[in-house]
Amino acid sequence: MLRIATLLLLFHLFAIKLHASFLPELALRSEHPRLLLLKGAEKDIHKAVAHNSNLKKVHEAIIAESDKFLNTPVLKREMTGRRLLGISRECLRRVFYLAYAYRMTGKPSYADRAEEEMLAVSGFSDWNPSHFLDVAEMTMGVAIGYDWLFDYLPQSSKAVIKEAIIEKGIKPSFEGKGTWWINGTNNWNQVCHAGISFGAIAIDEGQPQQTGKILERAIAGLPHVMKGYNPDGAYPEGYNYWGYGTMFNVLFIDAYEKFKNKNFDFSDVAGFMKTPYYMLHMEGSSHNSFNYSDAGNGVDIQPAMFWFAKKMKDPSLIWNEMNFIETHDLAQLAVERTLPALLIWAKDFNTEKERAPSGLTWAGGGPNPVFLMRSSWTNPGAVYMGLKCGSPSVSHGHMDVGSFVLDMNGERWAEDLGMQNYNSLETKGVDLWNMNQNSQRWTVFRYNNFAHNTLTINGQLQHAKGKAVLKAYASDKQFMNAQTDLSDLYKEQLVGASRGIAIVNGSYALVRDEVSAGAKAAELRWTLVTRADVSIIAPDRILLKKGGKQVVVQIKSDQKIVIKSWPAISKNDYDAANPGVTLIGFETEIAAGKSAAFDVFFYSDKNKPAIDFNVAPLKTWPKD
């Protein structure tokens, strides 16, 4: 009897172990829809939209745009230079919107049109695997439509669309040189893994090995780029590419967690869950972003912030997003191709508890360290500054190390010109993606240090491989400040160079530079990029006027300086125009073996009596 009981126990334990080994596959979600918005979850969006006017506005933007699609010609395979990306992105936008509109209204016209778009792109010769972002975004768009409309689409259409996902999406992701992104360290990694994984999940019908291989590849590959957020959450590629790479990253995580019924492991990429605070602080009081590196001007709606707000139970993270929704019309909202995801994530937490963020400063290390600070979140005239450290050699980098932006009185006074359209440069033969010191990339006007709010020494470029760290910072409201050591950027030009920026008493801004020349004298140029009207009103002062407001720029130094202004015009035929932009600043010569300091103040006339023009050396500035 005892022997039989023992055998039964062993069998039972073996059965438990056997069952446990199959749990991950048994847990796979089999019913459609299985991507992002699960069956029956539409009612939660309807409820959220009914209780929040901003969410209702987003919903209306998607429906209105979907109505426009009904009378728009279907997409064609039209290349822009070497890219099909514009068509792929429009496919994702159209299918995502139309499938959402069908699920929320039940109107067949939306599903029919989504089917037309999917069949049209499925008939393309390929999805341009030589530029794999094109494949990834197309695959994601078609996958969402296939999954969300699975019960509506006729079998004949499903067969065509499924074959396209396999042949034009999944198979090319395992072939050729175009798969370098699998373990890449930039946004391609995030976008491509997400797009192909969406395709695999959408068409998985009892084929867990195939889908598992793709998801396992993504789980192994994504940390290569996600570790770039460590330690604090600063995204190396800047504002625009945060919105691209991070958004696709969270789309993957959401799809993975819902399909596999398991949590994503963040243990090695802890900085990723800190990154929404970076993005929150990257928008200034003028509602422009700190657009260093390859980024555009202005700000965009960021659906990913709703995912983070939900995950972290912090409604303050959507402070900027709610403002964006309030201040932009339906057409402006509908530019964002992943907009339905905003509502999918917003439905899961109480957006009515939205509140202003508490911290006025944010510091982040990593490949491209930054410091961001403001005098207030609720005062539209607040002072805002951002300091960029890092290296020009980081992906999508510019020679902008040490640069800053400045907002006061609701306007941006210190600008970053940001990126130029890639195709406009590539079609002129510019060697844009070579990051070496003598690369043609650094002759592009918007990319070198001559047209950034930083220093130029002896008319030379910054060292492309040089790096500046965030040396010190303080969050004291009376003297919020940050410092960086720029010496590595000016090797062989200077012995040392340090920069500090500060917001003093919440009312005016300060930039201090301390430089030391070596065995030879050094010609220093201090540059500010601005869209304001410029007047030199004294040997040490410049008046800026913009939007009916004005700011005084005043320079204090023991050095003899000459204030100058330069037009933002290039002799290169490949450079974009910069209308309304002026470069201002000063030039000076630092004698061999000598050191010099320069203090540049930004203030409104009404603030001048409160300014302390006697600035202490950087080493004595307060630190956290």
Walkthrough of the structure:
The protein is of the alpha+beta class and 624 residues long. It is 35% helix and 17% strand. The chain has 17 helices and 17 strands. Helix 8 packs antiparallel against helix 9. 49% of the residues are buried. Mean pLDDT is 93; it is low at 1-26.
Question: How would you briefly describe this protein structure?
Answer:
By secondary structure, the chain is of the alpha+beta class.
Largest sheet: 8 strands, antiparallel
The structure class reads alpha+beta
* Overall outline: globular
Count of helical regions:
17
Q: How helical, in percent, are the residues?
A: 25-40%
Strand order of the largest sheet: 7-8-9-10-17-14-13-12
Low-confidence blocks of residues:
1-26
Task: Describe the secondary structure blueprint for this structure.
Layout: H1 2-26, H2 42-51, H3 53-69, H4 85-105, H5 108-122, H6 132-148, H7 155-170, H8 187-203, H9 208-221, H10 223-226, H11 239-260, H12 275-281, H13 304-312, H14 319-327, H15 330-333, H16 339-346, E1 361-364, E2 370-374, E3 384-388, E4 404-408, E5 411-414, H17 422-426, E6 455-457, E7 470-474, E8 479-485, E9 496-504, E10 508-516, E11 522-530, E12 533-538, E13 541-546, E14 549-556, E15 562-567, E16 582-590, E17 595-603
Helix pairs in contact: 2-3, 3-4, 3-16, 4-5, 4-6, 5-6, 5-7, 6-7, 6-8, 7-8, 8-9, 8-11, 13-16
